[in-house]
Amino acid sequence: MMAAAATGATAMTVVSSSGQRVGSLTQFNQNRTSLALPQNLTHFSSSISMPAFGNHRIGVGIEKKESWTSSGKAEAGVRQLVGSLTRTEGLRFAVVVARFNELVTKLLLEGAVQTFKRYSVKEEDIDVVWVPGSFEIGVVAEKLGKSGNYHAILCIGAVIRGDTSHYDAVVNSATSGVLSAGLNSGVPCIFGVLTCDNMEQALDRAGGKAGNKGAETALTAIEMASLFEHHLK
């Protein structure tokens, strides 16, 4: 809370529309005004008109750490369910990796495994399954999800555009396959398939200047696994 005492300062109590004291407003001079609020009042929302303060009329909006309905009424006790990156004990993961464009997918896999370990996932709780290409990822991910052995499935591949429409067919099939795997198995299946115009773009996203998308999607897998295990069972 900010100090409100100063020589020649004019102080005023800040109250809510219900008449409850929620803080204080202090004018030190024409150019400096201090608003002191308790810690559970964090930011300003719709304006509440206050009496004239010095030569100025001041509007202050107070918003508590509560959920608010569209009508403006506070809705107490609303829970927010969020997956944790730290509660990883007991979580098991499968990583389905396409062998095609292995130069890229190996780097993505390394980034994913390193991230799992960094967030305290044990090696014995990570299974890696290799498939020929990104087209085959979906069916394997669904099979793994339905096995009941994993809390999330991370799907890794790299599809690079060529001279024919084959690229579009594989990308569309891989995308819909991973989506269907998650919906049909009820286990989060995370899309970690790169879709790039050339090899340079792919390598940039496999540990190059654009980061490692394998590591990023591993974080998504951890969060979703935690959300399902700790909140949605």
From TrEMBL:
<keyword id="KW-0808">Transferase</keyword>
<dbReference type="GO" id="GO:0009231">
    <property type="term" value="P:riboflavin biosynthetic process"/>
</dbReference>
<dbReference type="InterPro" id="IPR002180">
    <property type="entry name" value="LS/RS"/>
</dbReference>
<protein>
    <recommendedName>
        <fullName>6,7-dimethyl-8-ribityllumazine synthase</fullName>
        <ecNumber>2.5.1.78</ecNumber>
    </recommendedName>
</protein>
<comment type="similarity">
    <text>Belongs to the DMRL synthase family.</text>
</comment>
<dbReference type="InterPro" id="IPR034964">
    <property type="entry name" value="LS"/>
</dbReference>
<keyword id="KW-0686">Riboflavin biosynthesis</keyword>
<dbReference type="GO" id="GO:0000906">
    <property type="term" value="F:6,7-dimethyl-8-ribityllumazine synthase activity"/>
</dbReference>
<dbReference type="InterPro" id="IPR036467">
    <property type="entry name" value="LS/RS_sf"/>
</dbReference>
<comment type="pathway">
    <text>Cofactor biosynthesis; riboflavin biosynthesis; riboflavin from 2-hydroxy-3-oxobutyl phosphate and 5-amino-6-(D-ribitylamino)uracil: step 1/2.</text>
</comment>
<comment type="function">
    <text>Catalyzes the formation of 6,7-dimethyl-8-ribityllumazine by condensation of 5-amino-6-(D-ribitylamino)uracil with 3,4-dihydroxy-2-butanone 4-phosphate. This is the penultimate step in the biosynthesis of riboflavin.</text>
</comment>
<comment type="subunit">
    <text>Oligomer forming an icosahedral capsid.</text>
</comment>
<dbReference type="Pfam" id="PF00885">
    <property type="entry name" value="DMRL_synthase"/>
</dbReference>
<dbReference type="GO" id="GO:0009349">
    <property type="term" value="C:riboflavin synthase complex"/>
</dbReference>
